[in-house]
Every structure is written in structure tokens, then in C-alpha cells.
From TrEMBL:
Subcellular location: Cell membrane
Protein name, per record: Potassium/proton antiporter
GO terms of biological process kind: proton transmembrane transport
Keywords assigned: Antiport, Cell membrane, Ion transport, Membrane, Transmembrane, Transmembrane helix, Transport
Length: 610
């Protein structure tokens, strides 16, 4: 047998192991992990160790397959509650935001580089979408705790905006390759029809595919170990069939994951653990392959315009697109700035930049190199500064729960129920004597190596392990009972105010005590209703409402999003942190209106003047 096969396997395995090991470095030094994956690929490529990989078709195929796996996992891990909370702003960003970003970057590219209009717009389309892998890593693995609505918006946007960018890129590549741009009327009709076809087929195929995945897993009594493999294979089947029928396979696989992940599947915990590992592997392979395909020695000739475009994308194009898209959705200036900054570019942009190379478009390799540098700029500038900027903008919120030791167990034949194993943590409510709700049925307690029924165990003690049989959609209350109190430092205490107020007390008492200037209708509300009304009807953990010289802070909400605890700060609200690179459209309009009003007042003749 040819020994070259073993050499290829050896090198490939060594690169994957090195990439996996680099995750320890990323966590230790706060480096963007995906940047390290790309760096390893570059170091092993033509200009590094000398591995010559120049097959654009193979790179695109591997990248597309890996992206399909990542998108299915993104949808599978997104709860419907998070999706509903962020659906409107996230989908607006994933559609209009992508179009705006592509257009703004395309115009800039036309004037900064020597590209024509269509190639410039193609470059804008390739970098128009955010990278799901990069965003999910920063928010979930990076332990950046921000408000639920902001986090959900970013995650849903990053998971759903790739299909639009892919459609734009492939359409522009086709137009440039065939020269069809000479007929603008026909071009507009073809693009509109193609968009409706791909998105429509992708959406329907995703819904049907997700439903079929759920039904097949429930009906077929497969071995537990085969279920995760079966689900992954079905997701790729949805992806491939949708693409074969002219739809967006990437949209379909994301929607299928969303449907399957929010259904009552067997072995859900096993599927999640399996997909977590497969998704990491897909990310590593995709970034390594794209790094190997790049040729750094070609970068210098386009480095300067690419760097300018990368900075322009971060500081101009993305903020403008985000500000315009979020204008109707009551996001604060700080939230808009944070969402703008977490729009990292990654493997999807590099993958799309390969398509001009595959179609042998003039300047395709230069466009690929330009996009590669833009992605590096995004990962280096944004990826390394998300944490500091979140703290600068006051976006970081204290954790709701302390350490929690829980294992979800799958029981054969336990339809719609789960067995949870909790280890009692010192200081948790149950360790202090709190009662477990009636809908949860404790069945066994393990203490010092001995097993006993819950009824005879007496008061639960730290170190006990208790097994509870619950419905598969158990409320978050159970986790709160078994978690230790979150560690609260002086900054956290200051964050939630000096003392607590009863959310069910009338808001009239606030007016009598602090005179914040409430409206007549607000005086008839409770404090909780007042806070919810000022927040647009729905309050979240850590939301803040300023009333004159006091500030009300939401300390906790229940499973129905009703406010259960409110903090009050009597300190004058601090001035919002200023980040000059960002300004929301609403604030800009307010400033322009104030300027016009002041000029109008200045022109009016004063009393007694002719």
C-alpha cells in the first residue's frame, strides 16, 4: 500500500490535534479561537510548511459540508423562546442588514480598489454576513454574559443570515461569468425570482425536513448510539435535496435544526453532546482547509486596500446597517453599538470568496485574498475586544445562578419525561430547606454511598445526589433551587441598586417618596407594570428604567416573564459611556431635530423687535 496515504492521515490528524489543543491557549489568553485555526492552516500551507493545497472545488465542497453541520447545530441549539424574543430584529438584520452591508461595502470597494461595479458588489456580498461559529464561540464559550434579548438577537442573526449572503454571492458570480448584466430589466427579474425561489423552497423544505426528522426518530426504534448519527445524516439529506431542487440548502438545514431542536425527540441530550463534538470538528476542518488554500505571499499587493475595507466594514458599514435595521425595535444606543461590534466575519466569507476562483472570473484570486485579509482584520480587532467593549458599554450583567451540578438522563419508554440528577451544592435553596415543587417527583437520594427514597432522606445535604423525574419542558425554577447563589461582588451589588422594592406595590408610592414625575396613567399601575410599560411591554433580567433621580433594576423574572424582584438605586444615573464610533439612528434624528428647532427659535424675532 502507498505510504503516502499514511503521511496524509498523519499530517491531517496532527493539524486537527494542534487546533484542538489551541483551544486551551485561546481560553487562557482570550484570543479568538477561530483566528488560531486559520493561523494554523496558513502556517501549514504553501508559504509555511509547504503543504500545497490549491483545489478550489474541494475547498468549497468541504467548507459547504462543514457549514451545513454548523448551521443545523445552530438551529438545534436555539430555543423557540429565544427565537421569538429576537425574531423580528434578528431576521431584519439577517435580510435587510445583509443587503445594506453588501451595498455599502460594495460602493466603498469600487472607489478604494480598481474593481468595477459588479465585482465590487460581489466583494461586498461575500463579507455581508456574520459568522455563526465566531459569534457562538464568543458568546457561549467566551462566558460574556449580556442581556438575553441582545444575546438571542446576535445568535439568531448569525445563524440565519448566511443564506442571503450566499444567494447574493452566487447570483453575482453567475452574472459576471455569463455577462448577463447587460440587460438590467431582465437582471432585476431574474434576481428577484431566484431569491423568492431559493428562500421559499429553503423555508418549506426546512419545515418539512425538520418535521420528518422528528417523526422518524420517534417512530424508528434505533439503538441509542445510532440516533445522533441518524439525525446528522438526515440533516445533510435535507441540505442536499433542497439544493438539488433549487432552494437554499443552508436556510433549510438551519430551519430543520430549529424545528428538531424544539421538538420532543428521544435521546435529545445524546444528540446535543454528539453534535457539539461534530460541530467543533467541522469548524476546525473548515478553517484549516481555508487557511491551507490561502497564499500569504500574494497578500502584500492588495494588503492596503483590504485593510482599509476591513476597517471600513467594522466602523462604518456594519454600524450603519445595524442602526437602520434596529431603529424600530427599542434597542438602546449601547445595545446597538454592541450588536454592531459582534458582527464578526469568518469562514463563510472566505468560503464564498472561493466561488469566483471556481468560475475562473478575472481577478478572482485577488478578490479571495482581499476577503481573507478582511476576515483576519475582523477576527483580530473585534474578536479580541468584545469583552472589554461589553464592559465599557455596561452590557455585562451579573450571572443569575451560581455553580449548578446537573446531569440529564434519558430513560427508555419515558415519553415526554426526563430523569435529572442533581448534586446538592452548598448554599443552594434546597440545601437551606426549600421545598421541591409537586410537579417534580424525586425518586432517589444517594448519600455517602447509600441509596434511599426521598421521603426517608430527610433534609437534603450538601454532596447528596438526588434523582428527579420531571416533564421534559420543566421550568427554570428547578435549576434555581439546586444552584448556589451567584457570587456577588461590590460591582454586582451596585449594579442591582441599594435595596429591593416590592414589584406589586403601587407606583404611586414611588411618586410620593421620590417625585420622579410619573404620568397620570402610570400612577395607577404597580411598580412591576410601570417597569414593563417603560420597557415596551416585556422586561428581562437586568433591565433598567430611569425615573428622574432614581433607577429601577429588574433583579429577577419568573418563567412567564413576570417581574418578581426589583432593585432601586437612589444615586443619579451615571452618564452613558461614550463610544464615538457608534451612534444610533434615533439619537442622530433627535440631535438633528433639536438643531433645527434651535435654529428656528434663533430666527424668530424677539418680543418688541420689528
Amino acid at each position: 500500500m502507498d505510504q503516502g496515504i499514511y503521511v496524509i492521515i498523519l499530517i491531517g490528524t496532527a493539524l486537527v490535534l494542534l487546533a484542538a489543543f489551541s483551544s486551551l491557549i485561546a481560553r487562557r489568553f482570550g484570543a479568538p479561537l477561530l483566528l488560531i485555526f486559520l493561523g494554523i492552516g496558513l502556517a501549514a500551507g504553501t508559504d509555511g510548511l509547504g503543504l500545497d493545497f490549491d483545489n478550489a472545488t474541494a475547498a468549497y465542497f468541504i467548507g459547504s459540508l462543514a457549514l451545513a453541520v454548523i448551521l443545523f447545530d445552530s438551529g438545534f441549539g436555539t430555543s423557540l423562546a429565544s427565537f421569538r424574543a429576537a425574531a423580528a430584529p434578528a431576521i431584519t438584520l439577517a435580510t435587510f442588514g445583509v443587503l445594506l452591508t453588501a451595498g455599502i461595502v460594495g460602493v466603498a470597494a469600487h472607489f478604494i480598489t480598481d474593481l468595477g461595479w459588479l465585482p465590487s458588489m460581489l466583494l461586498g456580498a461575500t463579507v455581508a454576513s456574520t459568522d455563526a461559529a465566531a459569534v457562538f464561540f464568543l458568546l457561549r464559550v467566551g462566558n460574556i454574559s449580556v442581556r438575553d434579548r441582545v444575546r438571542s438577537t446576535l445568535e439568531v442573526e448569525s445563524g440565519s443570515n448566511d443564506p442571503i449572503a450566499i444567494f447574493l454571492t452566487l447570483s453575482l458570480v453567475s452574472l459576471i461569468a455569463t455577462g448577463a448584466a447587460a440587460e438590467p430589466e431582465k437582471l432585476a427579474l431574474d434576481v428577484a425570482f431566484g431569491f423568492l425561489q431559493q428562500m421559499g423552497i429553503g423555508l418549506v423544505a426546512g419545515l418539512i425536513g425538520g418535521y420528518l426528522i422528528v417523526r422518524l426518530v420517534i417512530r424508528l426504534r434505533l439503538d441509542q448510539g445510532l440516533v445522533p448519527i441518524f439525525v446528522l445524516a438526515l440533516s445533510l439529506l435535507v441540505f442536499s435535496i433542497t439544493g438539488a431542487f433549487g432552494g437554499s440548502g443552508f436556510l433549510a438545514v438551519y430551519i430543520a435544526g430549529l424545528v428538531a431542536g424544539n421538538s420532543r425527540l428521544r435521546a435529545t441530550d445524546q444528540i446535543k453532546r454528539f453534535q457539539d463534538g461534530v460541530t467543533w470538528l467541522a469548524q476546525i476542518i473548515m478553517f484549516l482547509v481555508l487557511g491551507l488554500f490561502a497564499t500569504p505571499s500574494q497578500f502584500p499587493e492588495i494588503a492596503l486596500p483590504a485593510l482599509v475595507l476591513g476597517v471600513f466594514l467594522i466602523f462604518v458599514a456594519r454600524p450603519i446597517a445595524v442602526a437602520l435595521c434596529l431603529l424600530p425595535f427599542r434597542f438602546t444606543r449601547e445595545e446597538t453599538a454592541f450588536i454592531s461590534w459582534v458582527g464578526l466575519r469568518g469562514a463563510v466569507s472566505i468560503l464564498l470568496a472561493i466561488t469566483p476562483v471556481i468560475d475562473n472570473i478575472d481577478g478572482g484570486r485577488a478578490l479571495f485574498n482581499t476577503v481573507f485579509i478582511i476576515v483576519l482584520v475582523s477576527l483580530m480587532i473585534q474578536g479580541w475586544t468584545v469583552g472589554p467593549l461589553a464592559r465599557r458599554l455596561g452590557m455585562v450583567v451579573p450571572p443569575r445562578l451560581g455553580p449548578l451540578n446537573k446531569v440529564e438522563l434519558e430513560l427508555p419508554g419515558s415519553a415526554h419525561h426526563e430523569l435529572l440528577a442533581y448534586r446538592i451544592v452548598a448554599g443552594s435553596p434546597v440545601e437551606r430547606g426549600a421545598r421541591i415543587p409537586r410537579w417534580a417527583r424525586p425518586s432517589l437520594v444517594l448519600r455517602d454511598g447509600r441509596s434511599m427514597t426521598y421521603q426517608y432522606a430527610g433534609r437534603l445535604m450538601a454532596g447528596d445526589r438526588v434523582y428527579i423525574f420531571v416533564p421534559d419542558r420543566y421550568p427554570r425554577l428547578l435549576d434555581r433551587l439546586f444552584a448556589s447563589p451567584a457570587e456577588v461582588d461590590s460591582e454586582d451589588a451596585e449594579f442591582f441598586g441599594a435595596f429591593a422594592v416590592d414589584p406589586d406595590r403601587p407606583a404611586l408610592e414611588l411618586e410620593q417618596a421620590y417625585a420622579p414625575g410619573l404620568k397620570e396613567k402610570e400612577l395607577e399601575m404597580t411598580i412591576a407594570e410601570l417597569v414593563a410599560a417603560r420597557l415596551g411591554g416585556r422586561a428581562e433580567y437586568a433591565d433598567r428604567v430611569t425615573l428622574g433621580n432614581i433607577e429601577l433594576i429588574v433583579r429577577d423574572v419568573d418563567d412567564d416573564d413576570h417581574i418578581t424582584s426589583i432593585g432601586l438605586s437612589v444615586e443619579p444615573p451615571a452618564q452613558a459611556p461614550k463610544v464615538p464610533a457608534f451612534i444610533s439612528v434615533s439619537e442622530l434624528l433627535r440631535r438633528l431635530w433639536a438643531m433645527l428647532q434651535s435654529r428656528k427659535t434663533a430666527r424668530e424675532p424677539r418680543a418688541g423687535e420689528n
